[in-house]
Fold these 2 entries.
Entry 1:
Amino acid sequence: MLNQNDLNLLQKGEPVNHFLLLKKCEIRNTKTNKQYLYLELGDKTASLNANLWDNFEEFYKQVNTGDVVKVAGSIDEFQGTPQIRINSIRKSNRKDDVLPQDFLPVSKRNPEIMKREILDRMEKISDPYLRTLMKQIFSGENLEKFLKAPAGKSWHHSYIHGLNEHTLEIIKICDLMCDIHPEINRDLLISGAMLHDLGKVEELSYETSFDYTDKGKLLGHIVISAMLINEEAKKISNFPEEIKNCLLHLILSHQGKLEYASPVVPKTLEAITLYQADELSAKVNAYKNALSSNSVSDSKWTKFISLASTDLYNHGIPQEDDEGINKTLFD
Amino acid sequence: MLNQNDLNLLQKGEPVNHFLLLKKCEIRNTKTNKQYLYLELGDKTASLNANLWDNFEEFYKQVNTGDVVKVAGSIDEFQGTPQIRINSIRKSNRKDDVLPQDFLPVSKRNPEIMKREILDRMEKISDPYLRTLMKQIFSGENLEKFLKAPAGKSWHHSYIHGLNEHTLEIIKICDLMCDIHPEINRDLLISGAMLHDLGKVEELSYETSFDYTDKGKLLGHIVISAMLINEEAKKISNFPEEIKNCLLHLILSHQGKLEYASPVVPKTLEAITLYQADELSAKVNAYKNALSSNSVSDSKWTKFISLASTDLYNHGIPQEDDEGINKTLFD
Amino acid sequence: MLNQNDLNLLQKGEPVNHFLLLKKCEIRNTKTNKQYLYLELGDKTASLNANLWDNFEEFYKQVNTGDVVKVAGSIDEFQGTPQIRINSIRKSNRKDDVLPQDFLPVSKRNPEIMKREILDRMEKISDPYLRTLMKQIFSGENLEKFLKAPAGKSWHHSYIHGLNEHTLEIIKICDLMCDIHPEINRDLLISGAMLHDLGKVEELSYETSFDYTDKGKLLGHIVISAMLINEEAKKISNFPEEIKNCLLHLILSHQGKLEYASPVVPKTLEAITLYQADELSAKVNAYKNALSSNSVSDSKWTKFISLASTDLYNHGIPQEDDEGINKTLFD
Amino acid sequence: MLNQNDLNLLQKGEPVNHFLLLKKCEIRNTKTNKQYLYLELGDKTASLNANLWDNFEEFYKQVNTGDVVKVAGSIDEFQGTPQIRINSIRKSNRKDDVLPQDFLPVSKRNPEIMKREILDRMEKISDPYLRTLMKQIFSGENLEKFLKAPAGKSWHHSYIHGLNEHTLEIIKICDLMCDIHPEINRDLLISGAMLHDLGKVEELSYETSFDYTDKGKLLGHIVISAMLINEEAKKISNFPEEIKNCLLHLILSHQGKLEYASPVVPKTLEAITLYQADELSAKVNAYKNALSSNSVSDSKWTKFISLASTDLYNHGIPQEDDEGINKTLFD
Amino acid sequence: MLNQNDLNLLQKGEPVNHFLLLKKCEIRNTKTNKQYLYLELGDKTASLNANLWDNFEEFYKQVNTGDVVKVAGSIDEFQGTPQIRINSIRKSNRKDDVLPQDFLPVSKRNPEIMKREILDRMEKISDPYLRTLMKQIFSGENLEKFLKAPAGKSWHHSYIHGLNEHTLEIIKICDLMCDIHPEINRDLLISGAMLHDLGKVEELSYETSFDYTDKGKLLGHIVISAMLINEEAKKISNFPEEIKNCLLHLILSHQGKLEYASPVVPKTLEAITLYQADELSAKVNAYKNALSSNSVSDSKWTKFISLASTDLYNHGIPQEDDEGINKTLFD
Amino acid sequence: MLNQNDLNLLQKGEPVNHFLLLKKCEIRNTKTNKQYLYLELGDKTASLNANLWDNFEEFYKQVNTGDVVKVAGSIDEFQGTPQIRINSIRKSNRKDDVLPQDFLPVSKRNPEIMKREILDRMEKISDPYLRTLMKQIFSGENLEKFLKAPAGKSWHHSYIHGLNEHTLEIIKICDLMCDIHPEINRDLLISGAMLHDLGKVEELSYETSFDYTDKGKLLGHIVISAMLINEEAKKISNFPEEIKNCLLHLILSHQGKLEYASPVVPKTLEAITLYQADELSAKVNAYKNALSSNSVSDSKWTKFISLASTDLYNHGIPQEDDEGINKTLFD
């Protein structure tokens, strides 16, 4: 466990004596042809720039982006944005006992609680075929990856454990919709909710930063999910064809529209519910993050957010206390 | 209270001795120039055609669409769809004690329970300005209309009490989202949810059938709502400008996109939540209704549903019992 | 083999003594409430209407759409379109030795030649993994279905053997593009061309008429193809991951745009080539068919073709002789 | 009244001894970490950059963007674009008798003449309800703001008095359309034209620069206008409901399409006329400005204009003399 | 000159003794297989249906659609719409002295006045090259066709002389815009306005009804106009290339957007003015016609107008007298 | 013929002693106000930057972009991209015997072979009118320009001789489609293919760089082609109107959709074939070039290609030898 102050809390002038993730490392030169080393360094709360003006060749040869480095220096400020003024820098070694993943953004919810929630909900699926399929898929390496992966590269739930956090939100919303509409097949819908973004564990890489894999860009998480479900269902004898097709349909249609990369549009009551529940969870999380990470000083308006096609407004209306954030959703 | 069997339960050959709503009444003629009277007659469960071949002139002069008539005859079937074979027909009179609204489709939920739910939730708004505004608006004639109106002409919650039923669903979804995201201002969001479709009480007429009013087509329910809120907030001294603008923004942006007739897109966390919660409630209700009212005999597929741009699939997978439909959502 | 004149060649007044496919069979009634039986009867060249005015109850109980019936009568004409005036009609029996598929539209090319072409081309794939995969997939039941299936319900190559005919055209175009551009990986492209629409054998039913299956509507042929390829490649030890992903990418992206139901857009040189070759083959075939089957008498213009968003023009400019239609494309 | 040469007329090397509006004022630093003060200074004709390299801290603390400053120096040129080389700079004080608004772009038409034109036209409205409503709205503070406001932030008529200038152009066009088409209700159309953009007086701020207000971004000028008209019409007893709804419809639909932020599309003859007249006035003004302010040296083509989705062409064809610009449109 | 009452003024029961244009003439048959002749007959004010039940074979052989026929009978009404009950009918002959064009809809403005207006305006073009080009084009057969042609098949100004009427409206609007904006090159703009739709004289046929020609559908009026101007300008020695290109650009871009079939978008100040002036003239005329010809009895709302994507509203607000309709626009 | 190594082959540190095309030449200045000369220098294989820090005034006055200059110096590298470090530079003179066009990108195919191919194919057109028209157009200056011009500014076949190379590819594809579909009129289609982009010889300038001409931007190559064909066909007596209209239709519709700037959509079998063949040739060439010229070091993925709306993937799968590139397509 890392014992150092979060980067986003340091003020101008305060000392830096931190392990940080090396996010960019490039030799640049000034207009007058002087070379220097341009760095981007971060922890899970922030990313800052820094320049090395001399004797950086040795360091430059030793490191790669994604490495953890030890930095000593102080917080400086240029043109209104904080930078790190570096006194010394070195690559971390085994004795330091630090890992790149300690520097990635992470869900604010407790991962152990979230793990228990998803496994508990799985047990409550009544249909034996679906419950068997779920337990077969959510086990071993698949389960581990699912519990750790982010739900996206940058837009919504884009932090470690984000995929499970997002999945749990959708399940909660879907269970509410089943309470309201008994016509919905609850087992089918909840199974679809659990599986809908599972392919993201192969679509995204998230060891030292969040990015798409080659497979992810060539196939997309929707089809990766579908192929996995198809394989696993084949292992269960007599798995009903109708259930399998309706479950696959849930996965394939959950982005709701062809232009959002779903190869089919929702055609069942469960499919329209899953699509809209996914939208609700994703959009609210994305706007919440965009509001906090794109703020402009002295303004209630954020920068223009291109995925929302607008800038967003942080109104100043006082609100209720934050008391619920780590409480279990399923009680 | 009307004491007769529902029209959709009558089988071919069974007698008809019913009060029914006159939905269409036109003189037509056959290819061979014989005139006859074409009628459309319905109760809240179904609409059937009927023809009068002789002596219909007197009856034709007495009635208008929207009247209740008394019909004696039997159920016939032509080309696979049931019709009414009429033996006698007359306009209803005062002694019959029947009203057109007894024949309109109506919510399956208990209106008294729903009324209590909406009023109870209103009382729980903590912000004094918002609570005062809500109580001022949801009273008298406005409240009465709100409790009775449908939420649409034909797509979702298009039945008597549908507006309140839809509003309660959204409130429930929004309260869940506030549980998950304490950053959302709960009072603001719930007030916006309660008011978002209020303008529909003037946009729609629903006395004898559901249709748009002239005002509704010229202004739209969004602007009608906004003008009403603006008027009512002016009556409350010192109503905070910031709250008023954010509340109006919720109403104006709740259809989410300009092309869906919202004059502004969602720019606050509450606004994106309300839009997505509205979508979830509306789409699930709409697809549920479309699945049941567009079925094709001997097929799991409905007719093509143009608002969904697809036909829909009634899978045969057994589901849980319907036990929750009349239980209060707020407990 | 059926020995009777094609329906589209019969003139008004000529006798009918034909086996025909029963495409529609409904009891209707006239304005004056007389019931009659409305029929649609066809062979592979045309479909005509017919009415039975009396004694049709027994016949109606015996038959289903998709059955072959024996009809005696003559060609009549009403309102400018030919009909069949029926003297007698009966359901076919085993001794008649006729099958529904004898009445479906069929490719004009020789199926045996086309079979040889596709199998020969498969043998020329140099990459051993891809050739093994192709031979594994194009065998047994899969091969049989592939050789028989149409390539669509109604727009292009919508006739028996149409899927293979369409596939062969694309292969020919793709081979030409490889001749022009040596940068294209020929084995990969040709394998993708062979497999791109294979899922249509499960997406479509084509025993007695052309329609979508439930699975086809819920999953779509693109994903059906991808799941099949994924399964089969798993059976080949050491099948290279890169080749598998690029092959799957070809299938997934071959409709070129998300809004055309491809879950990913073309991202490799082979993928853009396959998409454009598919478009070329499909559009030319579709327009050719639309021009001949939507003509309007006394006009060079067809009816409005909604898939082309225009009416089409049959200019009168004389053209070269038709000499190439049954010659093998691969020589 | 300011007595100094327009900034856009000064040549390289000429002295600067000007009051200018401070539009930007930021501390920046060079690659070699030297801090300097970056300024943007302008009058109503142009904006130029300037740098202060030393002793800027005191000045920096005294000023805010939007202040007027007194600058002495000369015109310099770097990389082909003129800059100001500053010898001395100070904040203006009361004795200088200069105001920020003296430095904003302003209509070329005489504001007094335009004021008379709009008030005269208002008097000619024959319908008593509409004339009363217009006189009630176009008075006091509303009138003052209307006469001064720009019609937009940057695209068309984006200068002081631009809102009235734009409104007068539309009125002239609408009166011509009424001459051609007597079916148009002239009073209704002209009233709608006068009011259509009135909400911009609250949507935009234009004291020291042109920008959107919070209210403007949350509600939009269309709804602000509608709420104002609704309030004012309520004060007139017996104001006819039909006229009010049609007038509100004009305002709501005047941007013509939902995707242009109108919550309803034009449904009356007056509404389609107003929309098209607005387009004509706005587009011609916008293109005229874009042609003159985006020119590229040594080219007849402007820079790419993103709102027009093209670059524009200044052809060299000689044209008639400019003689009409200040003559009254209404004579 | 035809001396008979307009068809749209005849009431049910009134006698018909009229020459009418034969717009449709088809043999149909009833459900019970009785053949009859279905006719559509019209003058320039209306079109009515009629049926001939007996002895129609001889008549059917003599006539073609587009012929004028003499009809005796009376006005009947079926299903709420008037029909003609025919007593006798015959084809017109030379002695009748009637022509098909007497039965086409025609502009309400005086064609001689409009001819004078367009020729007078042409003389006022100051640029000698443009004036010469205009006089060369607007002469002989071209001029005759231009003065007679409609401006469209059905949407706006779709009546005889409509092309000139529409062109004159645009000229009037453009002259107003030149008064407001002296930056516009008036000669260029007015020349473009005169020529912009000239190609419609070859795109449309309008002898016996309004329809597209083969050439019109294959090339479109925009390119037909451009080719004609190109040819005629080549005949004028030293015609300036810059003027020619800008004039062609006006014609090519006057539909404003690529998706409206303009091959280039407006890139000059004149081009944007012409596009918006065309839109204003076309839309107001189209909506005016749609309001009067799509009215629904007992409703202020028209039928749904697909080209406007809405139904339209005939408000009941009294308006000024129609006094200007035949007065010359240019005085 | 230029005797120097290609720029894209030079390594860091290697000497430069080259004639190069001057593509950009601007005086810039550093943050500290020092002026320098910024240059962009290239041959047909690459473009590199260079800076002159002193004594550049004389050189700057002598040259214009588009000139050839002689440069001595060496290859340097800053921030990972190569630059030229200049020791001396001078403008080329007549004795140097170098021309700007020697420095433009050029087709890899042999231009003499391509010239023979296009002329040979022209001779094989059987229809005498079309063959005469082709020979008339493809002669003299038109032919010369056609053989040299690129087919675009930057997207596909954007190199010298690219227009002919692209045209030949389309012809080959079209001939294949005629082999498959004898219903296509081969003469018409091939003539359309030859002419479809001919207008690009006037739309583009390609003497010293590739850019659009004024005429090209105002009219577009489609209409330029159409006007030329119209003129030339008028010179041939009795040129059949039907052939002329269908040929013009091919040119006008060959971009397939209105939004791609075709003023009409394809309405004949030849037109749909030409559009799809053009797409196939253009897209494959464009993606091939984009893959090679947008590569990112150490990545199989290119930069984001905005015209493809995606980044592209260079898979590592080995492919067949490049043996065919200079062989004649028509043998």
Entry 2:
Amino acid sequence: MTSASETVKIGIIGSQFEADIHAASIAMGRHGEVVAVASPTPGNAQELADRYGIARAYTDYREMLADPAIDMVTITAPNRLHCQITLDAAAAGKHVVCEKPLAMTLEEADLMIAACEQAGVHLFYAEELFFTPKYVKAKEMADQGAFGDVYLVKQSEMHFGPHADWFWDVEQSGGGVFMDMGCHGIAFCYWFLGRRRPTAITAQMGTYVHTDKGRGEDHSFAIIEFEGGVIGHLEDSWARRGGMDDRVEVYGSEGVTYANLHMGNALPTYSENGYGYAVEKAPSTSGWSYPVYEELWNYGFPQEMEHFAKCVKGLATPDSTGRDGRVVQELLLAGYQSAGSGRKVELPFRPEGVVKPIDLMFSPLAL
Amino acid sequence: MTSASETVKIGIIGSQFEADIHAASIAMGRHGEVVAVASPTPGNAQELADRYGIARAYTDYREMLADPAIDMVTITAPNRLHCQITLDAAAAGKHVVCEKPLAMTLEEADLMIAACEQAGVHLFYAEELFFTPKYVKAKEMADQGAFGDVYLVKQSEMHFGPHADWFWDVEQSGGGVFMDMGCHGIAFCYWFLGRRRPTAITAQMGTYVHTDKGRGEDHSFAIIEFEGGVIGHLEDSWARRGGMDDRVEVYGSEGVTYANLHMGNALPTYSENGYGYAVEKAPSTSGWSYPVYEELWNYGFPQEMEHFAKCVKGLATPDSTGRDGRVVQELLLAGYQSAGSGRKVELPFRPEGVVKPIDLMFSPLAL
Amino acid sequence: MTSASETVKIGIIGSQFEADIHAASIAMGRHGEVVAVASPTPGNAQELADRYGIARAYTDYREMLADPAIDMVTITAPNRLHCQITLDAAAAGKHVVCEKPLAMTLEEADLMIAACEQAGVHLFYAEELFFTPKYVKAKEMADQGAFGDVYLVKQSEMHFGPHADWFWDVEQSGGGVFMDMGCHGIAFCYWFLGRRRPTAITAQMGTYVHTDKGRGEDHSFAIIEFEGGVIGHLEDSWARRGGMDDRVEVYGSEGVTYANLHMGNALPTYSENGYGYAVEKAPSTSGWSYPVYEELWNYGFPQEMEHFAKCVKGLATPDSTGRDGRVVQELLLAGYQSAGSGRKVELPFRPEGVVKPIDLMFSPLAL
Amino acid sequence: MTSASETVKIGIIGSQFEADIHAASIAMGRHGEVVAVASPTPGNAQELADRYGIARAYTDYREMLADPAIDMVTITAPNRLHCQITLDAAAAGKHVVCEKPLAMTLEEADLMIAACEQAGVHLFYAEELFFTPKYVKAKEMADQGAFGDVYLVKQSEMHFGPHADWFWDVEQSGGGVFMDMGCHGIAFCYWFLGRRRPTAITAQMGTYVHTDKGRGEDHSFAIIEFEGGVIGHLEDSWARRGGMDDRVEVYGSEGVTYANLHMGNALPTYSENGYGYAVEKAPSTSGWSYPVYEELWNYGFPQEMEHFAKCVKGLATPDSTGRDGRVVQELLLAGYQSAGSGRKVELPFRPEGVVKPIDLMFSPLAL
């Protein structure tokens, strides 16, 4: 184990948008240090390495896994590769931070969890909403009894579509926006409610705007029922113009709160000619815009990465693990089944022979 | 028909919260005039009459219907009485403004529509959201192409529970919050989308907070699918603390808009000791509060009542009729069926032998 | 006097932006009716007449004054003409609604008040902020004791510059933004505080952005002291990009309130391609914008015009008169004197030989 | 100099509200470490030490200064003691972080600056607004040209009065709210505008609510003119109910921005019974409230303290120094002079024989 005074040496697998977030976020902390990046497209890894002063760049992540100096890897590759890379990393004795969603199937999730357990390495699940300061405040207030008995947690995330091509190819991504962002809401409601056991899910999805870009859904709703009769409501969109939007609401017998991460945190700004950067996915900085400040920190990415590094150093107990990711995986599958069948799906839901979650919407099982 | 220069003489049936809104709203216009009020509880009609300078008070609405001077009646009585009163009013040759929801069943709705048609009187459906200025602006922008192809309309209304006891008794009301306020959202989405034909509904409801007050649900979600693949999303609550909240969001291929009728319109105010009136259902005016201004006008009630009076005078074409109410009725029934069965319900949905909508949630039909 | 059932016949003097507001606002009421419009530029009066169905158009307002059918005229001509037109109207026995600011000098103001008094006609001062519903709500709460002892009222109005050329020519307008919009704030604070006697004013102004367009100031601050030690704070700008902005804040020993007429009332909207109309002075409707709804009504213009008509009919007591305008006039003069001299100016302030208010800033009197 | 790997050892002088902020903020960083606290009231230092795990507590700060292990001290004592303590600290070879405002007079400020220069120690001025993330974002946008030529910066801070008694005693504090919080706005505008030279100030102040608590003003306005004709506008209040409020606005030829640190960042919350903590100076957590999250970080305190520690370690160049504090000192004096004389005061302003700034308001100099 890395001693308290040393940094955890981290290798990033991937080089695009999410990898950039990881690199920047780890650099903001003190317990971790990115020492390598691996990406198959020639030049991509080096480009990220140059930007962040990362020591080594690879085109083959397996070479990176062979470096004994590396303690932990983060996986930002397409969803369909999460499982294989995790197994390889565990076999190499590396701790794993796997980006959401965990995998394509429950079988994969179980393999990943087992492999890391057997290898004695952590399998962290990169759900930054457990660390988003504004949402953490909401949970603190809830836990202090501010809302009495919480009966409903709502989370939504919307923008006009992801950066990378693979998101739009369901063969690589496993699904559309529900797969990409619904996993945030599922995890968030589960965590917020104290990891209460989910019992059922009802989902409705469609491809409304980006019909030309693929088969994945671009706006989704899901209602999750938890033990004790409390519910979570998710709304996710790749079809919302104007920039990123992320919100949480909490309802209880004694109160309510609204946490808006963008329009409710921004500096409403008018600029005739524009400026450097407003917010993720903002189409423009001219005219009116909603620039945010300290975007990574306000989203919780540095805090999340610091947490993982501290866990590796034995300074913290893991708060977002592969098991959380598996709970999400099951609800993703059940959600697609619900959307495809037009029925609520009870848990446990362990479909067999599923290649990717969205297949359950295209061809729901006869239950 | 009342000539253009005369006022339409109106009798209000009911004397409580909604009747007060009617009286105040009609007084703000120029085409209508309240000349009578009827309420069975002794003294109630007179009390409202005194407050608004209404000429005549009755305990039996049938006596009021016998007055030839009255052109139109408004019905604010409990839902289970809407049908009978409408039939009586039509038989008496009076135009009818029926508060939402229209009735308890489709059979009742059809009877009411037929009776008014045969009697040659208008059957208006009191859906004020068709007249809410802020929401009308959203529709104008949509119709001007501001959002491109609109694919989703969201409407929500929340507070901590209604005034009158009969709301909490499902035998009188027909259901809980979905019946009481979901009808607003159903009508609104339908109207906003140009009265596009609804094809299905998926609903989820529960009694989360007011378990001691009755069997009705106190927080509901519903997703309505319309022809052409566009959707409406409703959220309604009797379990939201802090005062009234009413919002609309519109999503399209080219844009989005947010219309918040309360927190987005109010004068955020701190008062150590409080003041006269903040907003409907506000628990207090001390501490922080969200007082609104010109509440009735901002909700569209005066505009709605003026519209009905103008229609009677032949100065306008009806924009909110019993047929709209019947569309809502069918979706209310289908919504309860969906919530009770855990399945999407396709339209048309014509259940037989239903006494009140919520029965379909307690005992969903086997479809 | 016009009987209660008839409408007050109104002639509008002017044909541009403000005249349009008058015509639209009067049409929204029931007590007044625009029957004539006069504007010296050939064609302008007829254009407004055509748009609003106004019976008669004139190029010479004196001809309009000769029409016995006209009860009242509204003056939207350049500031330097307010006095002469008022005298002519009074001489013709017409009631007068004079747009703000009342005049160029106190001498003119006194002449106008005297002439109307002698002629037995009303001299109304068109300060719509006394009727702005959201601000009226703030005053109601204050009068109910919501804020305890009010010690500070703040009002501000900002946009990127007026429509008509004459505003930018101080010879015609009398000053820049403080003359054009500071008069609103002066009147508002005076009225809000119960027409408490103002005792002094401290002002600071400058031309920061539109240095190429004229000599008038384009951003101003003023602090008015009132009897009893309470204060008003005004901020006005012709140099604020992004559309109209109008706000009020009220501070008292027991509370505070915020009333924002635009960003705090609007439907925040993103539109890729734009739509019909957002808000006064909005540069664009594409990208993000803050469209308002029922703009005239929310500003109080129809309510203001209805009030004036009702006063003519003896149905109301005037609430915004030439005497209010004179109070404003004195503070405008004192404010320019303060800005030019860098000193607080005590009231009464009766400068002699002043041609237009801004002269006191260019050449402050030695006091 | 402390090596890069060691922490800067810090002693806090004072034990109340501001000292608590310092202790908490330094603990959030990695370059500094609080090792001692000194406060004359028996028990106070120990209480803070216990809460933060600080090694040593003193009642006499001079004893603390004698400890060779200490690199730097922070001064949170009453304003009238800032000078003496700074001189003592410099004499002891300690770097100094002095809370705002720097001193009571320019003479003191000059003494403090000279003493630290001669001793070869830093004199840092604790103006956290240079580090407030949301305001730093506004400055970044301005520097990127978002607003074109910035002509006006506004900053305001308001609550219902400070914690400690000494604030209300002008003999100890030197003045009321303008001294206590106007110094923030003065520094902020100066820094935001690139440390442009201030040329004049016009101020207006009064005691409106807390007339029973002392002679200090409780609401103040000030307009600062800078070289090149740009201005800063400050508003500060100890008479605003409802919790802390801090805002910035920036106006330029090409744009505008609004940065609201509280109501514009909070989670609007309703709680029937309340919860742990909402925001500084919040009167209650029941009813509606505006809880903020990560309050210290969002105010910039940890970033500020980290910056000072990094400077001591040679890792950063000081960005908030005694010289900044002296600029503020001069404007505080000139502001009180302006408020007392009712005149704009030109800089430089070097009044002689002033004991404390507010004296210039009570007895303005004849200039």
